[in-house]
From TrEMBL:
Keywords noted in UniProt: Phosphoprotein
Modification type 4-aspartylphosphate: residues: 51
Native source organism of the sequence: Lysobacter auxotrophicus
Protein name: Response regulatory domain-containing protein
Gene3D superfamilies attached to this UniProt entry: 3.40.50.2300
Domain Response regulatory stretches: 2-108
Transmembrane segments annotated in the record for this chain: none
InterPro entries the UniProt entry points to: CheY-like_superfamily, Sig_transdc_resp-reg_receiver
Amino acid sequence: MRILLVEDCAATAERVSEALTSLGHEADVACSIESTAELIARGAYDAFILDLNVGGVSTLEAGEQLRLAGHLVCFASGVDPQSAPSDALFLSKPYTLDGVADMLARLSPLARRTLAFH
């Protein structure tokens, strides 16, 4: 899958990007809401991993817009998953390779269904 990771901590973004790549996926990183919009406009992504708070800005609205448009979205945060929509996928921080692999396993069946309709 081609995944856009939206994470404002550069060190964290690098670790997660490396984990995604080691698991056989292609990852791009956006460190701000503005760069996220630019990358989405330029590329087609199979899934999005959105930190719930990027540069002091909530990504909930953007994530919900992506989900309504049929995109696969996983919210991520070091705070309580209750911050994310109850039906959304959630990845807890600190990120681990096992946590990222588990999240991808949960995304994969959704990806197969979603990509079949495109």
